[in-house]
Structures are given as structure tokens and as C-alpha cells.
């Protein structure tokens, strides 16, 4: 099944494998910890609402605005006094006391390609790009976290659910393939779900696999074809191969990806949907020590019939999966160490168009957040009476990215060097959002 957005680009399931690498700057984490005065998160679940979800529905309703702006949905109270949501996220309304909603992030790029790059890397594209472009001008947030934080027991540091396809800008850029995401391209809601890349092929048991690995090492002791290992393409694959072996033979990785260990009741609570089971598997992954997981809920590009789509499918699926994830993490004590954010590339237009939809609108958007040091039952910023732009507490994408890195114990001003040796800070400008750190 493919999902088409307004740019005409289809998203299709396919299987890829990418392994994040190792690396930890303990000093930088300690410095960031001291700067924020709180313990950094160990993991982050990044729920990507691809296509650009409306900020009016669910988190920033405008019940007093004219009908052509407020839409047809009613509002409901949350369990935090004075905070209201759309009527079609009743479960999330009941976990508002564990959330912060940021209502005042704004940027300038109305295209899927540029907006995706901006929100998943923290950097705007240096030039305009086509709405449907898949571009990489800077390492993604996930790849930076993969470089800076160490996973253990053969578990990849950066896992991305590539459903229905990989994010447009979720790769490592000049950091190299070592910090690319490990893609999950199989639907965890399918009865026979299993991760091909963490399971030995049929007929190959652990003992046989170990013999094959020893044979490979013996072969690798032979002289390389070229005089210089630096010029030998095979040499560069050794670390990737070793990481693949560690993943396949890791009991911890096998357990983490085995969603069938969960009870029927837990799986039902998340919702028997692709998104619901992604959220459940994300909980298992952070529980096993994966630092960064991207859950993808695609299809929010509603230029027509937005209320029909939101009421009938998108909001109920999100509402059940997201609210259950927050409750489950909290009840297990994992929300003290796990940062959760839910967002897309932009919001939607204030005025409903002639087709009953809302168009792209980067001038205002909402982000839901929870986790260590994130205030509970809190609203940051506000849009104006029409929801068209921030009226107070305007924040940039760079502010958001700086906050996320800081919450993960990573100094957002740290300098990397690209393939040409040019110095580049992880985030160019921006500062952590005070209410979150």
C-alpha cells in the first residue's frame, strides 16, 4: 500500500538495514547536565506525523474563531484545568497532566521536503527544494544521537520505522553510514511480524553462525588486494559487518524486537494498528537501551476532507497509541528517562479551503512532549485568536532542536567537521527552551 501526498511522491514499504555506531562524549553530557540542572534522558521516542498535522486538531483549537477557521469539531476539557483539546482525542486529554504542549513554534518552509529536513535535522535547507524532495544537507537528529550516545548488547542506537517508507531527511549525511538508522520496514501489526535482520536464517543455528564468523575472520587475515587498507573498499565494510553480526547474535536485540512477548491485553491497549504497534515496539526498544527511535504515523497531508479523515481514522489511531504510550512509560518508570515528542513538518492553514481541507502552514504548529524534566500539565506559548501565528513565546526550529539535544545530554553547540573539513555546529543558533530545561 502506498501513500501519496500533494507532491505526488508515493511512499512504499521496502527493506533496508542500517546500523548506527558507537561513541560517547561523557564530558559533554556532564556539561549539559550541569547546565540544565537535571538528569539527561537516556532515550527519545520521536513520533513523526508525516505530511504536516493540523495544529487546530488536536492541540490548539480555536472555538471562538469563525466557522471557516475553527472547523466543525467541538472542544473538550483535558484533565488539566483551563486546557482544552479537540473532541476526537479524548484519551490524550486524560494524560495532559503528564504532557507539555508547545504551541508557538514557527518557521518559513511550506514544502514537505524542506519542512521535513528542517524538523528532523534542526537546520533549514540552504536553498529552496521541491515539495517532494528527499534531501540531506546535514546529519539528522537521530544520526547525531547515534554518534554521541552508546547502545549496548549489540542493540542499534538509532532505529527508524520506515513505514510506509524512510523519512525524507533521516540519514547521517557527512557522519557516514555508521550512523545511519536501522530500518524496520515490516509492519509490527502483522501476525507473523519478525525482524529479518536480528534473526538467523533458517537452518543456521548459533553454533553454525559462530563457525562462519570464525572462517570469515581467518579469510580476512589474508593480505588485502591493494597495498593500502585505506584504498581497499572491503576494509571500510569491516566495522559494519561486525555490527551486523553483533545485532544478529544479540539475545537482547532479539528480545527487544520480539513484540509477541507482549500480552494480548497490552497489544490491544495500544491499538491493533501499524502506529499502535510501532509505539509498543518503541517502548520495548527504549526499555532495552536504544537511545533514539522514530515512530512514523504518515498521511497527515489533508488538503481535502480533513475532518472526515481526522475523525474517521487519523485522530483515533494517534489518540489511542500516543496516550497508551505515555501511560505505559509512566507506569513502568520509563518516562523518567525517556523523552517523547510528537510532531510533523508544519501546521495547517487557518482558513479551510474550498475542498474542505487545510493547506500547508509553517507559521504555526504544535508539538507534544513528555519525559524527564518536561513540566507536566503545561502549555508553552500561544497562537493568536485565529491560530495563524505565535502571539506569545515565539520559538524557532533551532530552539526546538537545541532543546532536544540538551535534554539528551548533548551540547547543541558542539562542532563537527564535514567531508571538506568545514566546522559546523550541531545546531546553528537557537537556544534551549527555558521551560523544558
> Would you identify the regions where 5 or more consecutive residues have pLDDT less than 50?
11-30, 32-36, 208-217, 222-237
Principal-axes shape call = globular
**Strand residue percentage:** 5-15%
What is the string of helix and strand elements? EEHEHEEHEHHEEHHHHHEHEEEEEEEHEE
Largest β-sheet summary: 8 strands, mixed
DSSP helix fraction = 25-40%
How many independent structural domains? 2
Fill in the CATH topology of the largest domain: Alkaline Phosphatase, subunit A
The number of helical runs is 12
- Could you say which structural class the secondary elements and strand pairing correspond to? alpha/beta
| Spatial arrangement of strands, main beta sheet | 8-7-9-3-10-13-6-14
N- to C-terminal separation? 41 Å
- Mean pLDDT across every amino acid position: 87
The CATH C-level class name of the largest domain: Alpha Beta
What would the keywords be for this entry?
437 residues; 12 helices; 18 strands; 31% helix
Care to give the gist of this entry?
The protein is an alpha/beta fold and 437 residues long. Residues 11-30, 32-36, 208-217 and 222-237 have low confidence and may be disordered. It folds into 2 domains: 3-198 and 263-436, 3-Layer(aba) Sandwich (Alkaline Phosphatase, subunit A); 201-248.
Amino acid at each position: 500500500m502506498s501513500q501519496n501526498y500533494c507532491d505526488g511522491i508515493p511512499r512504499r514499504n521496502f527493506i533496508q538495514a542500517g546500523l548506527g555506531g558507537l561513541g560517547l562524549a561523557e564530558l559533554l553530557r556532564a556539561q549539559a547536565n550541569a547546565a540544565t540542572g537535571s538528569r539527561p534522558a537516556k532515550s527519545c521516542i520521536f513520533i513523526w506525523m508525516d505530511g504536516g498535522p493540523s495544529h487546530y486538531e488536536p492541540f490548539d483549537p480555536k472555538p471562538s474563531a469563525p466557522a471557516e477557521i475553527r472547523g466543525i469539531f467541538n472542544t473538550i476539557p483535558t484533565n488539566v484545568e483551563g486546557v482544552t483539546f479537540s473532541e476526537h482525542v479524548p484519551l490524550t486529554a486524560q494524560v495532559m497532566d503528564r504532557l507539555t504542549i508547545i504551541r508557538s513554534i514557527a518557521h518559513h518552509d511550506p514544502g514537505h521536503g524542506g519542512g521535513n529536513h528542517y524538523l528532523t535535522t534542526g537546520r533549514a535547507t540552504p536553498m529552496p527544494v521541491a515539495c517532494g524532495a528527499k534531501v540531506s544537507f546535514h546529519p539528522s537528529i537521530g544520526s547525531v544521537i547515534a554518534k554521541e550516545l552508546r547502545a549496548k548488547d549489540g542493540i542499534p542506537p538509532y532505529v527508524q520505522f520506515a513505514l510506509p517508507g524512510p523519512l525524507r531527511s533521516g540519514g547521517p549525511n557527512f557522519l557516514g553510514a555508521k550512523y545511519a538508522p536501522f530500518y524496520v520496514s515490516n509492519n509490527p501489526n502483522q501476525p507473523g511480524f519478525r525482524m529479518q535482520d536480528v534473526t538467523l536464517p533458517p537452518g543456521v543455528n548459533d553454533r553454525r553462525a559462530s563457525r562462519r564468523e570464525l572462517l570469515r575472520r581467518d579469510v580476512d587475515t589474508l593480505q588485502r588486494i591493494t597495498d593500502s587498507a585505506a584504498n581497499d573498499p572491503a576494509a571500510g565494510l569491516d566495522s559494519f559487518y561486525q555490527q551486523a553480526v553483533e545485532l544478529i547474535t544479540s539475545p537482547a536485540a532479539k528480545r527487544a524486537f520480539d513484540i509477541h512477548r507482549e500480552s494480548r491485553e497490552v497489544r490491544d491497549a495500544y491499538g491493533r494498528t501499524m502506529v499502535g504497534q510501532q509505539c509498543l515496539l518503541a517502548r520495548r526498544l527504549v526499555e532495552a537501551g536504544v537511545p533514539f527511535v522514530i515512530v512514523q504515523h504518515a498521511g497527515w497531508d489533508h488538503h481535502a476532507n480533513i475532518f472526515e479523515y481526522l475523525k474517521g481514522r487519523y485522530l483515533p489511531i494517534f489518540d489511542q497509541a500516543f496516550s497508551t504510550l505515555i501511560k505505559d512509560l509512566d507506569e513502568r518508570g520509563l518516562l523518567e528517562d525517556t523523552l517523547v515528542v510528537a510532531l510533523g513538518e508544519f501546521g495547517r492553514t487557518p482558513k479551510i479551503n474550498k475542498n474542505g481541507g487545510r493547506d500547508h502552514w509553517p507559521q504555526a504548529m504544535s508539538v507534544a512532549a513528555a519525559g524527564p524534566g518536561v513540566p507536566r500539565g503545561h502549555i508553552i506559548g500561544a497562537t493568536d485568536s485565529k491560530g495563524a501565528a505565535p502571539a506569545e513565546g515565539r520559538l524557532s526550529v533551532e530552539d526546538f532542536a537545541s532543546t532536544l539535544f540538551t535534554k539528551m545530554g548533548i551540547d547543541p553547540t558542539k562542532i563537527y567537521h564535514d567531508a571538506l573539513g568545514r566546522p559546523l555546529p550541531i545546531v546553528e543558533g537557537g537556544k534551549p527552551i527555558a521551560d523544558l530545561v
